[in-house]
């Protein structure tokens, strides 16, 4: 349908030069071709609202994770007040915004769907193995979960950077110089995370590990039935 009026949708009217605005504009151009300005405006509004929702949601979740989970719980051991948490949350929001702007500029020419796939690859490497093993494997320990999460996160990020889509397309290195030949690191980084959790947990014979293993049956009952679950904590 877009090829019927190439001068409207393609650079200089030439199909070989690609869509105006790149491949990420395919849905917008198709909306214009199908429904004219009305459908184009509707799809544009939906896309804009979606971007706002995703950006604001991720910013809030990232800021709350840093201010409450890391700063208040890990670093301050709960010995802080809401004013300090709020200050850390504001600083984190600004930092996340700056990082997001620079990453957006660096990955401007990349396909959005592919970038989402990379984000899921990192998530499935850092989060999924930890959640899966801690809930379903009775011998999983805290040390194993932490080690597996760190290995999954670092390996997925590093393999993504040295892949052709980033190493060559974004960083401008010569074609064929990428150290990782595949587009997604998920298969390798997730496997590394699972293996790390298994090995570290098996080698962990500390008293804390033994205590965690002994508490697994009660945890399984709570996770499957909800019986014995504690009430909501105050924030």
From TrEMBL:
One of its GO terms (molecular function) is acetate transmembrane transporter activity. It is a multi-pass membrane protein. Pfam families: SSF. InterPro entries: Na/Glc_symporter_sf, Na/solute_symporter, Sodium:Solute_Symporter. It is found in: Cell membrane. It comes from the Bacteria. Keywords: Cell membrane, Membrane, Symport, Transmembrane, Transmembrane helix, Transport. One of its GO terms (biological process) is plasma membrane acetate transport. The chain crosses the membrane at residues 39-67, 88-107, 113-137, 144-167, 179-200. GO terms for cellular component: plasma membrane. PROSITE patterns: NA_SOLUT_SYMP_3. Belongs to the sodium:solute symporter (SSF) (TC 2.A.21) family. This is Acetate transporter.
């Amino acid at each position: 349908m877009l090829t019927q009026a190439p001068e409207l949708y393609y650079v200089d009217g030439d199909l070989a030069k690609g869509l105006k605005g790149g491949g990420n504009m395919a849905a917008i151009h198709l909306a214009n071709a199908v429904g004219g300005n009305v459908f184009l405006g509707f799809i544009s509004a939906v896309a804009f609202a979606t971007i706002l929702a995703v950006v604001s949601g991720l910013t809030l979740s990232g800021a709350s994770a840093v201010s409450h989970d890391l700063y208040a719980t890990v670093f301050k051991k709960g010995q802080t007040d809401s004013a300090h948490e709020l200050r850390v949350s504001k600083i984190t929001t600004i930092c996340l915004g700056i990082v997001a702007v620079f990453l957006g500029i660096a990955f401007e020419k990349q396909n959005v769907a592919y970038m989402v796939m990379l984000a899921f690859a990192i998530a499935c490497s850092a989060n999924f193995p930890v959640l899966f093993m801690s809930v379903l494997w009775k011998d999983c320990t805290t040390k194993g979960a932490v080690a597996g999460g760190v290995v999954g996160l670092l390996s997925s990020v590093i393999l993504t950077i040295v892949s052709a889509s980033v190493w060559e397309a974004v960083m401008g290195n010569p074609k064929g110089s990428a150290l990782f030949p595949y587009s997604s690191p998920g298969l390798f980084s997730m496997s590394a995370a699972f293996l790390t959790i298994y090995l570290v947990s098996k080698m962990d014979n500390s008293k804390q590990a033994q205590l965690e293993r002994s508490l697994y049956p009660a945890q399984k009952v709570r996770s499957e039935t909800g019986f014995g679950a504690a009430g909501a904590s105050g924030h």
